[in-house]
Amino acid sequence: MAIRRDRKSKFVRLFDKTPPGVLCPHFYELVLSNGCPYNCSYCYLKLTFRGNTEPTLFQNGWEKVKAELDGISHGVFSTGELADSLAVIPPLLPKALDYFTAQNNKSLLMVTKVPTLNSFVPTDRVPACWYHFQLTLSPGQGCTRPVLLIPRSV
Ligand code: SF4
């Protein structure tokens, strides 16, 4: 079950909350959805949105998202903050795939625990995107590892 509604806040924001001493580059969050249906016991989502992890899918028109993206010259844009990028497909994601496929200096990062890319994401889109898969080795035990990262130069 997922909630569908318009988003009132901005869709794009710079993630710059990396703690001192952690070598993690800044990136942009592209908020097409919130929440995740997987309910991993260790998930930080349990500490956000008052513990409500039910997916919320934003259904505004694409032009509002595009205007925010157009205002930024380059970078990596992640749909996997406070959400699993592909567990429930956000309605705005097809437009986002079209947008990033046409970009030279911007990339879409999707972070997910779905086991495989399904037919929703054609393989000819792969060069436009980074997919970061995580497999849960022991379900619910907090043991994860990234298994695939397909970069393109930005
Ligand atoms: S798959 Fe990721 S986002 Fe979803 S509940 Fe598990 S840790 Fe949280």
Mean pLDDT: 79
The number of distinct helices, counting runs of at least 4 residues, comes to 2
Structural class comes to: alpha/beta
**N-C termini distance:** 36 Å
Please explain how this structure is put together.
The protein has 154 residues and is α/β, with parallel strands linked by helices. It has one domain. Helices cover 12% and strands 29% of the residues. The protein contains two helices and nine strands. It has helices at residues 62-70, 93-101; strands spanning 3-5, 12-15, 27-30, 33-34, 56-58, 75-78, 106-112, 129-138, 143-149. The strands form two sheets. A six-stranded mixed beta sheet has the order 2-3-6-7-8-9. The relative contact order is 0.18. The model is unreliable at 135-154 (pLDDT under 50). The site of iron/sulfur cluster (SF4) has 8 residues, from loops.
Keywords:
154 residues; alpha/beta; six-stranded mixed beta sheet; three-stranded mixed beta sheet; 2 helices; binds iron/sulfur cluster
Layout of secondary structure:
Blueprint: E1 3-5, E2 12-15, E3 27-30, E4 33-34, E5 56-58, H1 62-70, E6 75-78, H2 93-101, E7 106-112, E8 129-138, E9 143-149
Parallel strand pairs: 1-5, 3-6, 6-7, 7-8
Antiparallel strand pairs: 2-3, 4-5, 8-9
This protein binds iron/sulfur cluster (SF4).
